[in-house]
């Protein structure tokens, strides 16, 4: 009797132990990665991934304009955008590494699935992308090729149009992260983007008007 | 306390109870069920956690691609540059490391419609890009579209046809290659990208190298050359690369062994160094 009872108690103790360990595993599972760091499903990580991709294209476009544009106002705004966004890309990439996450989104990952509102597609009022499957505001390869082929005022106007749409398209992501990111420094960066890009949007709209052009139809 | 008294009572009437009391099947089943559940949770958690980490580049997992079957790995010295007129006698086809053109190909998620000069593409690999090549006679239509969707607009990716490629698809990263059948859904493609794109442990340049390049003409890139490079080509050990030819002036770089470190560090102009030639910067 004592032997069997001991066996039962032992088994129960083992079971309780395993349940405890399993709960521990589940908690780990719910936040894969170093403790307290944002996990793969967090707003923070999703924002840093997608905004990096979005920024890298703006850096590409701004680099083209900074290099070959003859208009000093356009060249100046292009340099501004390029240097600011390069710095922000570096910040986001550094955070991702320290959170134990990949530096860029996994291949084939859905865009903007992390957003609490309007992810996975179109939010009303946001400009489209240049091609399906791209994030809002992104230029297609054909548009980039066309930009590279233009010169003079035609180049200035098309660059401003593309960059304006790009800024506006990224604003929803920044708004979402400014409210819902778990880390204070991520929310701060998102707010910085909203503020600085907001003034750049007004400036680029003015530059377009001066050149007798209008934003791309959205 | 209660169990203590029970035990005493149990000991007193031990034999008869042990003989007549049925086995506690209910308890046994419950314990087994709890155990099975715990093991299930363990297993599930283990698989999920290890999957998400398997191809993640970390200090402990610097080259996750070693877990992918059929990946060829080779060590190459970086930062050996050639001029636009020079060619490199690469040891692999397509090449995935070695001396390369000083001007790297644009790798900002770029789909090249025609084959591009190897020397330009290899430099982009050094910057952390993944170069997907395909045999244009074999990979077409829907399969080609799938490859394009993995590249177009995706940072640090480039795609180009590669004439006479010995397999339908070949993936290149610096020092790494994976040749595949005509199946763009092969899971190893994404695993290769995840393991090696912008992998900061590949080379010094892969930690921050840019994919933008203002001096590379994407609309009219230098074309792929089918003919084998001649005897004047730069060899895989870097003989004939820009650094050597600059030091040796017009003469061909025949005697690299007579150029030890101090000589190569002090070119004729002396411009890069403020310290007098031959004086080591001991104060720094």
Head-to-tail CA distance between termini of chain B: 76 Å
Q: Approximately how much helix is present in the residues of chain A?
A: 55-70%
Rg of chain B, rounded, reads 31 Å
> What percent strand of chain B?
5-15%
User: Count the helices of chain B. How many?
Assistant: 8
Q: Strand-and-helix sequence of chain A, N→C?
A: HHHHHH
CATH superfamily annotation of the largest domain in chain A: Ferritin, core subunit, four-helix bundle
Approximate helicity band of chain B: 25-40%
- Report the total helices of chain A: 6
What is the number of domains of chain A?
2
Strand elements of chain B, count: 8
Shape of chain A: elongated
Structural class of chain A: mainly alpha
Biggest interface and its residues per chain?
A-B, 44 and 48 residues
What coarse outline of chain B follows from CA principal-axis ratios? elongated
Approximately what portion of the residues of chain A adopt beta-strand conformation? Answer: under 5%
- What would CATH call the architecture of the largest domain in chain A? Up-down Bundle
Number of strands of chain A: 0
CATH structural fold name of the domain at 66-207 in chain B: Glutaredoxin
Q: Just give the CATH class of the domain at 66-207 in chain B.
A: Alpha Beta
- Cα-to-Cα separation, first versus last residue of chain A: 81 Å
């Amino acid at each position: 009797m004592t032997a069997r009872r001991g066996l039962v108690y032992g088994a129960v103790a083992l079971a309780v132990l395993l349940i405890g360990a399993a709960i521990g595993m589940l908690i780990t599972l719910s936040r894969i990665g170093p403790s307290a760091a944002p996990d793969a499903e967090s707003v923070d990580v999703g924002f840093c991934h997608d905004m990096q991709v979005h920024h890298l294209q703006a850096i590409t476009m701004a680099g083209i304009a900074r290099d070959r544009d003859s208009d000093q106002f356009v060249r100046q705004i292009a340099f501004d955008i390029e240097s600011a966004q390069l710095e922000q890309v570096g910040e986001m990439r550094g955070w991702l590494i320290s959170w134990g996450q990949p530096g860029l989104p996994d291949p084939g990952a859905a865009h903007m699935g992390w957003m609490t509102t309007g992810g996975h597609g179109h939010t009303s009022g946001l400009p489209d992308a240049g091609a399906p499957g791209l994030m809002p505001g992104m230029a297609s390869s054909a548009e980039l090729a066309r930009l590279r082929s233009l010169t003079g005022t035609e180049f200035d106007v098309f660059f401003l149009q593309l960059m304006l749409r790009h800024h506006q398209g990224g604003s929803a992501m920044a708004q979402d992260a400014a409210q819902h990111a778990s880390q204070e420094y991520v929310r701060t960066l998102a707010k910085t983007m909203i503020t600085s890009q907001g003034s750049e949007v007004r400036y680029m709209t003015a530059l377009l008007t001066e050149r007798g052009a209008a934003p791309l139809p959205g | 306390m209660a169990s203590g008294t029970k035990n005493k009572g149990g000991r007193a009437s031990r034999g008869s109870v042990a003989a007549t009391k049925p086995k506690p099947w209910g308890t046994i089943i419950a314990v087994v069920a709890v155990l099975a559940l715990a093991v299930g949770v363990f297993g599930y958690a283990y698989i999920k956690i290890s999957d998400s980490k398997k191809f993640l580049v970390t200090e402990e997992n610097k080259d996750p691609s070693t877990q992918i079957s059929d990946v060829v790995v080779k060590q190459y010295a970086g930062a050996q540059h050639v001029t636009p007129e020079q060619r490199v006698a690469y040891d692999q086809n397509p090449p995935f490391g070695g001396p390369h053109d000083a001007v790297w190909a644009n790798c900002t998620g770029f789909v090249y419609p025609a084959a591009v000069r190897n020397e330009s593409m290899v430099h982009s690999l050094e910057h952390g890009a993944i170069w997907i090549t395909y045999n244009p006679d074999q990979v077409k239509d829907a399969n080609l579209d799938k490859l394009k969707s993995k590249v177009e607009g995706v940072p640090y990716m480039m795609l180009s046809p590669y004439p006479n490629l010995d397999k339908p698809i070949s993936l290149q990263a610096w020092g790494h290659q994976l040749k595949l059948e005509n199946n763009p859904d092969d899971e190893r493609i994404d695993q290769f990208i995840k393991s090696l794109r912008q992998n900061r442990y590949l080379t010094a340049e892969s930690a921050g190298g840019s994919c933008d390049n203002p001096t590379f003409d994407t609309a009219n890139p230098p074309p792929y050359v089918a003919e084998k490079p001649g005897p004047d080509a730069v060899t895989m050990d870097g003989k004939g690369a820009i650094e050597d030819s600059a030091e040796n002036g017009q003469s061909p770089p025949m005697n690299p062994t007579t150029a030890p470190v101090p000589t190569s560090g002090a070119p004729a102009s002396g411009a890069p160094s403020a310290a007098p030639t031959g004086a080591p910067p001991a104060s720094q």
